[in-house]
Design a protein that fits this description.
The structure holds 4 protein chains of 4 kinds.
Chain B (H helix, E strand, L loop, with lengths): L1 E14 L7 E7 L9 H4 L11 E5 L8 E6 L1 H6 L16 E6 L2 E4 L2 E3 L1
Antiparallel strand pairs in B: 1-2, 1-4, 2-3, 4-5, 6-7
Chain C lengths: L1 E9 L12 E7 L11 E5 L8 E6 L1 H6 L9 E12 L3
Antiparallel strand pairs in C: 1-2, 1-4, 2-3, 4-5
Chain D lengths: L1 E10 L2 E2 L7 E8 L5 E10 L8 E6 L1 H7 L12 E6 L5
Antiparallel strand pairs in D: 1-3, 1-5, 3-4, 5-6
Chain lengths: 121, 113, 90, 90
Protein backbone atom coordinates (compact mmCIF):
# COMPACT_ATOMS: atom_id res chain seq x y z
CA UNK A 1 0.00 0.00 0.00
CA UNK A 2 1.10 3.53 -0.50
CA UNK A 3 0.21 6.86 1.02
CA UNK A 4 -0.95 9.65 -1.26
CA UNK A 5 -3.09 12.71 -1.68
CA UNK A 6 -6.11 12.90 -3.95
CA UNK A 7 -5.39 15.62 -6.50
CA UNK A 8 -8.06 15.01 -9.09
CA UNK A 9 -10.86 13.03 -10.54
CA UNK A 10 -11.30 11.38 -13.93
CA UNK A 11 -14.47 11.23 -16.02
CA UNK A 12 -14.73 8.70 -18.81
CA UNK A 13 -17.78 7.66 -20.82
CA UNK A 14 -16.10 4.99 -22.90
CA UNK A 15 -14.74 2.58 -20.34
CA UNK A 16 -14.46 -1.11 -19.73
CA UNK A 17 -17.98 -2.35 -18.92
CA UNK A 18 -16.78 -3.79 -15.62
CA UNK A 19 -15.70 -0.30 -14.56
CA UNK A 20 -19.15 1.15 -15.27
CA UNK A 21 -19.83 2.51 -11.81
CA UNK A 22 -16.32 3.01 -10.51
CA UNK A 23 -15.27 6.44 -9.31
CA UNK A 24 -11.75 7.18 -10.51
CA UNK A 25 -9.40 9.42 -8.55
CA UNK A 26 -5.99 10.81 -9.46
CA UNK A 27 -3.61 10.26 -6.55
CA UNK A 28 -0.19 11.79 -6.09
CA UNK A 29 1.97 9.44 -4.01
CA UNK A 30 3.72 10.74 -0.92
CA UNK A 31 7.34 9.82 -1.34
CA UNK A 32 8.65 7.97 -4.34
CA UNK A 33 6.31 5.52 -5.98
CA UNK A 34 7.95 2.63 -7.76
CA UNK A 35 5.32 0.45 -9.32
CA UNK A 36 6.07 -3.23 -9.29
CA UNK A 37 5.11 -3.25 -12.94
CA UNK A 38 4.82 -0.63 -15.57
CA UNK A 39 8.38 0.33 -16.04
CA UNK A 40 8.82 1.90 -19.42
CA UNK A 41 10.98 3.22 -22.13
CA UNK A 42 13.35 5.62 -20.46
CA UNK A 43 13.33 3.82 -17.12
CA UNK A 44 14.45 6.98 -15.41
CA UNK A 45 10.80 7.96 -15.14
CA UNK A 46 8.79 4.81 -14.75
CA UNK A 47 5.38 5.25 -16.31
CA UNK A 48 2.87 6.49 -13.81
CA UNK A 49 5.75 7.00 -11.44
CA UNK A 50 4.48 10.40 -10.46
CA UNK A 51 0.78 9.69 -10.26
CA UNK A 52 -1.67 6.88 -10.27
CA UNK A 53 -5.37 6.47 -10.83
CA UNK A 54 -7.27 4.46 -8.24
CA UNK A 55 -10.89 3.40 -7.90
CA UNK A 56 -12.68 4.70 -4.83
CA UNK A 57 -15.74 3.56 -2.96
CA UNK A 58 -14.94 5.29 0.33
CA UNK A 59 -16.08 8.66 -1.00
CA UNK A 60 -12.69 10.32 -0.84
CA UNK A 61 -12.36 13.75 -2.41
CA UNK A 62 -9.75 16.13 -3.74
CA UNK A 63 -7.35 17.10 -0.97
CA UNK A 64 -7.93 13.96 1.09
CA UNK A 65 -4.95 11.91 2.16
CA UNK A 66 -5.52 8.25 1.32
CA UNK A 67 -3.99 4.79 1.51
CA UNK A 68 -3.99 3.06 -1.89
CA UNK A 69 -3.69 -0.67 -2.28
CA UNK A 70 -2.22 -2.21 -5.45
CA UNK A 71 -2.81 -5.45 -7.32
CA UNK A 72 -5.16 -8.30 -6.44
CA UNK A 73 -6.60 -6.82 -3.20
CA UNK A 74 -7.50 -3.69 -5.19
CA UNK A 75 -9.43 -5.80 -7.69
CA UNK A 76 -11.18 -7.63 -4.87
CA UNK A 77 -12.39 -4.36 -3.38
CA UNK A 78 -13.45 -3.09 -6.81
CA UNK A 79 -15.68 -6.11 -7.37
CA UNK A 80 -13.63 -9.21 -8.07
CA UNK A 81 -10.62 -10.64 -9.85
CA UNK A 82 -12.18 -10.11 -13.28
CA UNK A 83 -12.35 -6.33 -12.85
CA UNK A 84 -9.58 -4.53 -14.74
CA UNK A 85 -8.34 -2.50 -11.79
CA UNK A 86 -4.83 -2.40 -10.32
CA UNK A 87 -5.21 0.27 -7.61
CA UNK A 88 -7.97 1.15 -5.14
CA UNK A 89 -8.42 3.57 -2.25
CA UNK A 90 -8.43 1.45 0.90
CA UNK A 91 -8.51 4.11 3.61
CA UNK A 92 -9.12 7.81 4.01
CA UNK A 93 -6.48 9.02 6.44
CA UNK A 94 -7.50 10.91 9.57
CA UNK A 95 -3.95 11.51 10.65
CA UNK A 96 -0.51 10.36 9.54
CA UNK A 97 2.60 10.96 11.54
CA UNK A 98 6.04 10.66 10.06
CA UNK A 99 8.83 10.64 12.58
CA UNK A 100 11.44 12.78 10.85
CA UNK A 101 14.30 11.82 13.20
CA UNK A 102 13.50 8.16 12.49
CA UNK A 103 13.53 8.91 8.77
CA UNK A 104 16.89 10.60 9.23
CA UNK A 105 18.15 7.54 11.05
CA UNK A 106 16.98 5.50 8.06
CA UNK A 107 19.43 7.46 5.97
CA UNK A 108 17.07 9.91 4.26
CA UNK A 109 18.84 13.13 3.42
CA UNK A 110 17.45 16.56 4.38
CA UNK A 111 15.98 16.96 0.87
CA UNK A 112 13.84 13.85 1.14
CA UNK A 113 12.83 14.70 4.72
CA UNK A 114 11.78 18.23 3.76
CA UNK A 115 9.80 17.06 0.73
CA UNK A 116 8.05 14.35 2.71
CA UNK A 117 7.14 16.64 5.58
CA UNK A 118 5.77 19.16 3.05
CA UNK A 119 3.82 16.47 1.24
CA UNK A 120 2.28 15.36 4.51
CA UNK A 121 1.25 18.92 5.29
CA UNK B 1 -3.52 2.67 -13.36
CA UNK B 2 -2.21 5.83 -14.95
CA UNK B 3 -3.28 8.57 -17.34
CA UNK B 4 -1.63 9.04 -20.70
CA UNK B 5 -2.17 10.38 -24.18
CA UNK B 6 -2.30 8.08 -27.20
CA UNK B 7 0.64 8.97 -29.40
CA UNK B 8 0.32 6.35 -32.10
CA UNK B 9 -0.13 2.78 -33.14
CA UNK B 10 2.24 -0.13 -33.48
CA UNK B 11 1.77 -3.14 -35.75
CA UNK B 12 3.33 -6.50 -35.20
CA UNK B 13 2.61 -9.80 -36.91
CA UNK B 14 5.09 -12.17 -35.30
CA UNK B 15 3.42 -12.45 -31.94
CA UNK B 16 2.53 -15.11 -29.45
CA UNK B 17 -0.68 -16.71 -30.72
CA UNK B 18 -2.82 -15.33 -27.89
CA UNK B 19 -1.94 -11.76 -28.79
CA UNK B 20 -2.96 -12.02 -32.47
CA UNK B 21 -5.64 -9.56 -33.50
CA UNK B 22 -4.97 -7.25 -30.56
CA UNK B 23 -4.71 -3.57 -31.41
CA UNK B 24 -1.62 -2.06 -29.82
CA UNK B 25 -1.31 1.63 -29.05
CA UNK B 26 1.68 3.75 -28.09
CA UNK B 27 0.79 5.84 -25.02
CA UNK B 28 2.76 8.70 -23.45
CA UNK B 29 2.12 8.83 -19.68
CA UNK B 30 1.33 12.12 -18.00
CA UNK B 31 3.41 13.34 -15.14
CA UNK B 32 1.40 15.14 -12.48
CA UNK B 33 3.91 17.32 -10.74
CA UNK B 34 6.50 16.23 -8.25
CA UNK B 35 6.44 15.80 -4.49
CA UNK B 36 5.91 19.39 -3.43
CA UNK B 37 2.29 20.45 -3.04
CA UNK B 38 1.20 23.40 -5.11
CA UNK B 39 3.58 22.51 -7.89
CA UNK B 40 0.77 20.76 -9.67
CA UNK B 41 -1.21 23.94 -10.40
CA UNK B 42 1.75 26.01 -11.39
CA UNK B 43 3.83 23.51 -13.31
CA UNK B 44 3.47 23.15 -17.05
CA UNK B 45 4.48 19.56 -16.30
CA UNK B 46 0.91 18.63 -15.65
CA UNK B 47 -0.24 19.46 -19.16
CA UNK B 48 2.39 17.74 -21.28
CA UNK B 49 2.87 14.00 -21.46
CA UNK B 50 6.33 12.55 -20.89
CA UNK B 51 8.67 11.29 -23.57
CA UNK B 52 8.08 7.73 -22.42
CA UNK B 53 6.17 5.26 -24.54
CA UNK B 54 4.07 2.46 -23.14
CA UNK B 55 2.67 -0.15 -25.51
CA UNK B 56 -0.94 -0.90 -24.52
CA UNK B 57 -3.57 -3.27 -25.85
CA UNK B 58 -6.83 -1.49 -26.71
CA UNK B 59 -10.40 -2.75 -27.09
CA UNK B 60 -12.09 0.64 -26.61
CA UNK B 61 -11.14 2.06 -30.00
CA UNK B 62 -8.97 4.88 -28.69
CA UNK B 63 -6.93 6.84 -31.21
CA UNK B 64 -4.04 9.32 -31.35
CA UNK B 65 -4.76 12.42 -29.30
CA UNK B 66 -7.15 10.64 -26.93
CA UNK B 67 -6.44 10.71 -23.20
CA UNK B 68 -6.71 7.21 -21.79
CA UNK B 69 -6.59 5.31 -18.51
CA UNK B 70 -4.18 2.37 -18.63
CA UNK B 71 -4.10 -0.58 -16.22
CA UNK B 72 -1.13 -2.85 -15.63
CA UNK B 73 -0.57 -6.48 -14.83
CA UNK B 74 -3.42 -8.91 -14.29
CA UNK B 75 -5.91 -6.05 -14.66
CA UNK B 76 -4.66 -5.52 -18.22
CA UNK B 77 -5.09 -9.18 -19.11
CA UNK B 78 -8.58 -9.08 -17.65
CA UNK B 79 -9.36 -6.00 -19.75
CA UNK B 80 -8.72 -7.86 -23.02
CA UNK B 81 -10.42 -11.05 -21.84
CA UNK B 82 -13.74 -10.14 -23.46
CA UNK B 83 -12.04 -10.87 -26.79
CA UNK B 84 -11.59 -14.45 -25.62
CA UNK B 85 -14.13 -17.25 -25.46
CA UNK B 86 -16.64 -16.76 -22.63
CA UNK B 87 -15.32 -18.17 -19.39
CA UNK B 88 -11.77 -18.47 -20.72
CA UNK B 89 -8.98 -17.47 -18.36
CA UNK B 90 -7.26 -14.19 -19.25
CA UNK B 91 -4.16 -15.94 -20.54
CA UNK B 92 -2.90 -13.22 -22.84
CA UNK B 93 0.79 -12.40 -22.37
CA UNK B 94 0.44 -8.64 -22.13
CA UNK B 95 1.01 -6.29 -19.20
CA UNK B 96 -0.78 -3.04 -20.12
CA UNK B 97 -4.22 -2.22 -21.55
CA UNK B 98 -6.53 0.75 -22.03
CA UNK B 99 -9.48 0.47 -19.62
CA UNK B 100 -11.14 3.86 -20.26
CA UNK B 101 -11.07 6.74 -22.72
CA UNK B 102 -11.00 9.91 -20.63
CA UNK B 103 -13.50 12.71 -21.19
CA UNK B 104 -12.21 15.08 -18.55
CA UNK B 105 -9.73 15.26 -15.70
CA UNK B 106 -10.24 17.68 -12.88
CA UNK B 107 -7.11 18.56 -10.94
CA UNK B 108 -7.47 20.46 -7.69
CA UNK B 109 -10.37 22.54 -8.95
CA UNK B 110 -9.12 23.06 -12.47
CA UNK B 111 -10.71 21.09 -15.30
CA UNK B 112 -8.54 19.87 -18.11
CA UNK B 113 -9.92 18.78 -21.49
CA UNK C 1 4.87 -3.16 -22.48
CA UNK C 2 7.33 -1.06 -24.34
CA UNK C 3 8.97 -0.89 -27.73
CA UNK C 4 12.71 -1.14 -28.21
CA UNK C 5 15.46 -1.99 -30.63
CA UNK C 6 17.51 -5.17 -30.36
CA UNK C 7 21.13 -4.07 -30.11
CA UNK C 8 22.71 -7.44 -29.55
CA UNK C 9 22.63 -10.94 -28.18
CA UNK C 10 23.99 -12.12 -24.91
CA UNK C 11 25.82 -15.34 -24.25
CA UNK C 12 26.87 -16.51 -20.82
CA UNK C 13 29.71 -18.75 -19.80
CA UNK C 14 27.82 -19.70 -16.68
CA UNK C 15 24.14 -19.21 -16.19
CA UNK C 16 21.17 -20.41 -14.20
CA UNK C 17 19.93 -23.79 -15.35
CA UNK C 18 16.59 -22.17 -16.08
CA UNK C 19 18.25 -20.04 -18.76
CA UNK C 20 19.98 -22.92 -20.56
CA UNK C 21 19.16 -22.93 -24.26
CA UNK C 22 17.35 -19.61 -24.02
CA UNK C 23 18.17 -16.84 -26.41
CA UNK C 24 18.83 -13.61 -24.55
CA UNK C 25 18.60 -10.29 -26.36
CA UNK C 26 19.90 -6.89 -25.37
CA UNK C 27 17.14 -4.36 -25.98
CA UNK C 28 17.22 -0.58 -25.74
CA UNK C 29 13.80 1.00 -25.15
CA UNK C 30 12.70 3.83 -27.43
CA UNK C 31 11.02 7.06 -26.37
CA UNK C 32 8.36 9.19 -28.08
CA UNK C 33 10.94 11.55 -29.52
CA UNK C 34 12.58 8.57 -31.20
CA UNK C 35 15.61 8.62 -28.94
CA UNK C 36 16.91 5.37 -27.52
CA UNK C 37 17.08 5.39 -23.75
CA UNK C 38 20.34 4.73 -21.94
CA UNK C 39 18.69 1.76 -20.36
CA UNK C 40 19.54 -1.74 -21.45
CA UNK C 41 17.25 -4.65 -20.84
CA UNK C 42 18.01 -8.33 -21.16
CA UNK C 43 14.92 -10.02 -22.56
CA UNK C 44 14.19 -13.67 -23.37
CA UNK C 45 13.30 -14.26 -27.00
CA UNK C 46 10.98 -16.97 -28.23
CA UNK C 47 10.11 -15.34 -31.56
CA UNK C 48 13.48 -15.42 -33.31
CA UNK C 49 14.17 -11.70 -33.23
CA UNK C 50 17.65 -10.47 -34.07
CA UNK C 51 19.88 -7.41 -33.87
CA UNK C 52 18.31 -4.40 -35.59
CA UNK C 53 14.74 -5.63 -35.07
CA UNK C 54 12.23 -3.49 -33.22
CA UNK C 55 10.46 -5.59 -30.62
CA UNK C 56 7.70 -5.28 -28.04
CA UNK C 57 8.73 -6.45 -24.59
CA UNK C 58 6.31 -7.27 -21.77
CA UNK C 59 7.26 -7.81 -18.16
CA UNK C 60 5.97 -10.00 -15.39
CA UNK C 61 5.91 -13.51 -14.05
CA UNK C 62 2.52 -14.24 -15.61
CA UNK C 63 3.63 -13.02 -19.02
CA UNK C 64 6.68 -15.24 -18.71
CA UNK C 65 4.59 -18.26 -17.62
CA UNK C 66 2.31 -17.83 -20.65
CA UNK C 67 5.10 -17.54 -23.19
CA UNK C 68 8.56 -18.93 -22.57
CA UNK C 69 7.70 -21.03 -19.51
CA UNK C 70 7.36 -20.68 -15.76
CA UNK C 71 10.85 -21.97 -15.05
CA UNK C 72 12.66 -19.15 -16.86
CA UNK C 73 14.54 -16.74 -14.60
CA UNK C 74 14.01 -13.64 -16.76
CA UNK C 75 10.70 -11.79 -16.47
CA UNK C 76 11.24 -9.58 -19.55
CA UNK C 77 9.90 -11.37 -22.61
CA UNK C 78 9.78 -10.44 -26.30
CA UNK C 79 6.09 -10.75 -27.20
CA UNK C 80 6.13 -9.21 -30.68
CA UNK C 81 8.35 -8.13 -33.55
CA UNK C 82 7.29 -4.72 -34.86
CA UNK C 83 6.28 -4.44 -38.51
CA UNK C 84 5.68 -0.73 -38.32
CA UNK C 85 4.59 2.04 -36.05
CA UNK C 86 3.17 5.49 -36.47
CA UNK C 87 3.18 8.43 -34.12
CA UNK C 88 0.75 11.33 -34.25
CA UNK C 89 -1.90 10.13 -36.71
CA UNK C 90 -4.56 7.43 -36.62
CA UNK D 1 10.76 -8.41 0.68
CA UNK D 2 12.40 -5.11 1.28
CA UNK D 3 14.23 -3.84 4.31
CA UNK D 4 13.24 -0.54 5.82
CA UNK D 5 12.81 1.61 8.88
CA UNK D 6 9.48 2.34 10.53
CA UNK D 7 9.05 6.11 10.25
CA UNK D 8 5.40 6.67 11.01
CA UNK D 9 1.87 5.51 11.43
CA UNK D 10 -1.46 6.14 9.71
CA UNK D 11 -4.88 6.45 11.36
CA UNK D 12 -8.08 6.18 9.33
CA UNK D 13 -11.73 5.98 10.35
CA UNK D 14 -13.03 5.43 6.83
CA UNK D 15 -11.29 2.35 5.53
CA UNK D 16 -11.98 -0.86 3.65
CA UNK D 17 -13.60 -3.55 5.76
CA UNK D 18 -10.59 -5.83 5.31
CA UNK D 19 -8.33 -3.30 7.01
CA UNK D 20 -10.40 -2.90 10.15
CA UNK D 21 -8.49 -3.52 13.34
CA UNK D 22 -5.13 -3.42 11.62
CA UNK D 23 -2.35 -1.06 12.57
CA UNK D 24 -0.88 0.68 9.54
CA UNK D 25 2.77 1.70 9.63
CA UNK D 26 4.73 3.88 7.25
CA UNK D 27 8.05 2.26 6.37
CA UNK D 28 10.91 3.99 4.53
CA UNK D 29 12.65 1.53 2.21
CA UNK D 30 16.43 1.31 2.36
CA UNK D 31 18.88 0.51 -0.40
CA UNK D 32 21.82 -1.91 -0.37
CA UNK D 33 23.96 0.61 1.47
CA UNK D 34 21.33 1.26 4.10
CA UNK D 35 20.30 4.66 2.76
CA UNK D 36 16.66 5.61 2.41
CA UNK D 37 15.50 5.39 -1.20
CA UNK D 38 12.73 7.92 -0.61
CA UNK D 39 10.15 5.24 -1.19
CA UNK D 40 7.45 5.00 1.48
CA UNK D 41 5.37 1.88 1.94
CA UNK D 42 2.26 1.58 4.08
CA UNK D 43 2.33 -1.86 5.70
CA UNK D 44 -0.07 -3.74 7.95
CA UNK D 45 1.67 -4.48 11.24
CA UNK D 46 0.77 -7.43 13.43
CA UNK D 47 4.20 -7.68 15.08
CA UNK D 48 3.88 -4.45 17.06
CA UNK D 49 6.82 -2.69 15.47
CA UNK D 50 7.58 0.85 16.59
CA UNK D 51 9.08 4.04 15.17
CA UNK D 52 12.75 3.75 14.33
CA UNK D 53 12.75 -0.03 14.22
CA UNK D 54 14.49 -1.89 11.44
CA UNK D 55 11.96 -4.17 9.71
CA UNK D 56 11.36 -6.18 6.58
CA UNK D 57 8.16 -5.73 4.55
CA UNK D 58 6.63 -8.53 2.50
CA UNK D 59 4.42 -7.91 -0.53
CA UNK D 60 1.63 -9.75 -2.29
CA UNK D 61 1.17 -13.38 -1.32
CA UNK D 62 4.03 -13.02 1.15
CA UNK D 63 2.17 -10.25 2.96
CA UNK D 64 -0.99 -12.36 3.12
CA UNK D 65 1.08 -15.20 4.55
CA UNK D 66 2.10 -12.89 7.40
CA UNK D 67 -1.55 -12.33 8.36
CA UNK D 68 -2.69 -15.89 7.75
CA UNK D 69 -0.28 -18.48 6.41
CA UNK D 70 -1.43 -20.91 3.76
CA UNK D 71 -3.02 -20.91 0.36
CA UNK D 72 -6.50 -20.08 1.66
CA UNK D 73 -5.77 -16.42 2.23
CA UNK D 74 -6.53 -14.77 -1.08
CA UNK D 75 -9.53 -13.06 0.46
CA UNK D 76 -7.31 -10.85 2.65
CA UNK D 77 -7.13 -7.20 1.67
CA UNK D 78 -3.45 -6.67 2.17
CA UNK D 79 -0.60 -6.10 -0.28
CA UNK D 80 2.15 -5.19 2.20
CA UNK D 81 2.89 -6.32 5.75
CA UNK D 82 5.72 -6.09 8.27
CA UNK D 83 7.21 -9.59 8.15
CA UNK D 84 10.11 -9.29 10.58
CA UNK D 85 11.70 -6.94 13.04
CA UNK D 86 15.39 -7.11 12.33
CA UNK D 87 17.63 -7.99 15.22
CA UNK D 88 20.87 -7.98 13.32
CA UNK D 89 22.32 -8.55 9.89
CA UNK D 90 25.76 -9.40 8.72
Amino acid sequence: MILGRVVGEVWATRRDARLARAKLLVVRPTGIYEPAFGETASGETASGGRHLVATDDLDAGIGDQVVVCLGAPARASAGGNDVPVDAAVMAVVDRAEIDLPALGAAGAGPGIRRKLSEALG
Amino acid sequence: MFLGRVAGTVWSTVKWPETRGLKLLLVRPYRLGDLAPGELRAGAEASEPTDDLVVCADLLDAGPGDDVLVAFGHAARVAVSEKLAPGAKPNVPIDAAVVAVVDRVELEGEARR
Amino acid sequence: MWMGRVVGRLWATRQAASLAGRKLLLVRPETASGAESRRLIVAVDGLDAGPGDRVIVARGSRVRDLTVGAEVADKDVVIGIVDGHELGRS
Amino acid sequence: MIRGTVVGQVWATRKARGLEGHKLLVVAARDAEGRSTGRLVVAVDVLDAGAGEDVTVAFGSGARNVLRPGPENRDLLCDAAVAAIVEGAG
